[in-house]
Amino acid sequence: MPYWYLQQASTFAGDVDNLVLLITVIVGFWFLAAEFIFFWLIWRFRARDGHKAAYVAGETKREKRWVSYPHYAVLAFDILILIFALRVWNDIKISAPPAEERIRVIAQQWAWTFVHAGPDGVLDTADDIRTVDDMHVELDKTYHFELHSRDVVHSFSVPVFRLKQDAVPGRAILGWFRPTRTGEFDIQCAEICGIGHGLMPARLIVRTPEEHRAWMAEASGMASATAGTGLVARVEGEGQ
Amino acid sequence: MSAHAASHAEHGHHEQGFVRKYLLSTDHKVIGLQYLFTGMLMALIGGFTVYVFRMQLAFPGEEVPLWGRVTAAQYNALVTTHGSVMIFWVAMPVLIAAFGNFLIPLMLGCDDMVFPRLNRLSYQLFLLSALILIASFFVPGGPFGGAWTAYPPLSADPAYNATPWGATLWLIAVALEFVAFLLGGINFITTAMNSRAPGMKMFDVPIVIWMIVLASLVFMASVGPLIAGAIMLLFDQRFGTGFFNPATGGDPVLWQHLFWFFGHPEVYVVLLPALGIVAEVMTTFSRKKLFAYRTVIFTAIATSIISFFVWAHHQFVAGIDPRMAGLFTVTTLIISVPIAEMMFIYIATLYGGSIRFTTPMLWALAFIAEFLIGGVTGIYLGAAGSDVYFHDTYFVLAHFHYTFFPIAFIATFAGLTYWFPKMFGRMMDERLGKIHFWGTIIAFNVIFIPLFLTGAGGDHRRIFDYSLFPELAGLQGLRVLATIGLLVLIAFQPIFIYNFINSMFRGKVAGANPWRANTLEWAAPSPPPHGNFPEMPVVYRGPYEYSVEGRDEDYWPQHVPPDDPKRPAEQVA
């Protein structure tokens, strides 16, 4: 289960983990049942002196029900999984709640640039805060992100959010998240993007609104002089 | 054909000279063995690369014995080579080409393939493709390192991949390899349609032949778009076109569609022959008729057709329209139904059997037990909602190794140990075979069960050093365990190689039908001479008439004429 290892830090992280749990229960049952019957048959029908194998063609309906009933059941369970899987998928990727703020994520070989809306809360204005390799967001605020790539295909992966989206050059791909836990977490690149693919970590920093405002005040002071570098984060001691 | 007299029964009987007999032969058995040995040699490359990069993952930055320190560029090249080689130059040649070439004429009861020269050309192109791939290790910039999926723009532009020659040679090698298998596939299908022994109807054809022919059909129908894509990518690399370059109006995601439209059916291209091998071995050693023979064929056909409609489940988060993902989730979960049914049928075949635990049978049973893990874990990935998390993590990697390892190795070992007596006329050593079996199976699970856990814990694929990700630090113990499993797995393989080579020359002489099996290849001498059958067989019944009631013998070969119903069953030899 993902939550054995990683905290859930977005509204949909719990839904993904519940779906994983549901699938585990269903396929776990089928897997154990199949393996149990399989090994039991192997043991039960091992070659012994004086025993001859039976002649079973498996062509009559009566015989075939031993495989046809289980496979109808598999179909039924598939439909159950399908319903939950598509609901979770819909929540993550199709129907987003309205944005409270926007953030732009730009991938390149081999760094992430994050354009934050800044104190005015609007992207593409003079007070935008650009950082490299660290993303700063506020607790319990719905963000829409806009994902770009400058060169090859990358993938924006935030494991604690259970969120992943490829960044494709030539496209602006939209998505959303709403952080539910403060702290500092990993961001990874999930699509091989060249020699530095493994050297493309970034950090996600989720703060309470007050702390986030304090960060913005500090960062925009710095950023006006050094727009678009990772210096901002390093001064704060939160970057790499 | 007439140039080859039918007198080459003796292995090592050099009338034509080594080169003409073994390198330029048009005999389907020699070509099958050429594919087999080439595939096994390529497996050594695939095995060595995984050894190097798993050592790097377990002990990052340390010197790897026989290699040295692994750089990031080398790491990418190693994983790319491992994936490409194991799928295109091991699984494909061994499962389809080696078993297909060796078995199809023998099991259909004919003297050779319909197009023997086309067959020879197929192997020669395949060999050329392997040599081109190997040559790419030695060019400036080194071999291609953009993963076996070769997504552009990374694969298209040397400014991004830093392997100007490696990327091009990789692409040419893959495209040539496809052409080789297209030629082989045409041959397989034509032969199965036209050269069956008298009396052999389509529903008397053994399952393994059905599966290889279906796999060839699926391959032929799916590979065209990828060959076209490979040529487009080659033009992007070399001639400045922009099919996949957004700056000039192209689209990188187009390649992903072309690749996976082939890439997913490809899974079934190698799975079906593996299932066929397992069916032959399981029926022989449980002395049972295959349960629901026709249903197996229909489910295989259903799987083949559905496999053309699932490809985008590799691309849920790739930037395709998210609504499309719903459609592909449906098809992906649907394909689990025929595959599950096939598994149930194989399990049901054991019911009422008299199961002998020979080495090939152990491999065949292990195939079912292990493939089930690969099958059920696929549900997590086919369900779009959970794939968002698992995509491109080690969970995916562990999942497809639980399908591909059973296919490419477990089923292959089942097939090799089963047909070895037919190939070389001698038996393999059972004790060494079982030691190799248990060492391999246990080690295999020690490698990949931990990797399900690291994947669930957030380890992403193709990362050459995890120390930059603080949240993943706790998973290092599992990574080391997986690497130890790999070292044990590799340590057990020389036992197989020794057993294989030693038994070729010093094994117990096998006789024509050592397993007391029904299918036609066992009617030919071991090893079969050029032309296969001293007397061409005639078929009287289906391939799985084991333990027929009222007969003394528990098998009833396809070519043995029916008894007079009034007389008691007579001995058949």
- Biggest sheet of chain B, in brief? none
Low-confidence stretches of chain B: 1-14, 566-573
Order of helices and strands of chain B: HHHHHHHHHHHHHHH
Mean pLDDT across every amino acid position of chain A? 90
Structural category of chain B: mainly alpha
Main sheet makeup of chain A: 5 strands, mixed
CATH topology of the largest domain in chain A: Immunoglobulin-like
Net shape of chain B? globular
User: Remind me, CATH topology of chain B?
Assistant: Cytochrome C Oxidase, Chain A
Write down the overall mean pLDDT of chain B: 93
Shape of chain A: elongated
The structural class of chain A is: alpha+beta
Detailed description of the structure:
The complex is a heterodimer of chains A (240) and B (573). By secondary structure, chain A is α+β, with helices and mostly antiparallel strands. Chain A has helices at 2-5, 13-44, 61-94, 209-223, 231-236; strands at residues 101-108, 111-116, 129-132, 134-138, 143-149, 154-158, 163-167, 173-177, 183-189, 202-207. Chain A has two domains: 2-94; 101-235, Cupredoxins -  blue copper proteins (Immunoglobulin-like), CATH 2.60.40.420. In chain A, the strands form two sheets. Chain A has a five-stranded mixed β-sheet. Chain A is elongated. Mean pLDDT of chain A is 90; it is low at 227-240. Chain B contains 15 helices and no strands. The longest helix of chain B is centred in the first third of the chain and has 37 residues, at 72-108. Helix content of chain B is 62%, strand content 0%. Chain B starts with 17 loop residues before the first helix and ends in a 67-residue tail after the last helix. Classes of the chains: A alpha+beta (240), B mainly alpha (573). Chains A and B meet through α1, α2, α3, β7 and β9 of A and α3, α8, α9, α10 and α11 of B.
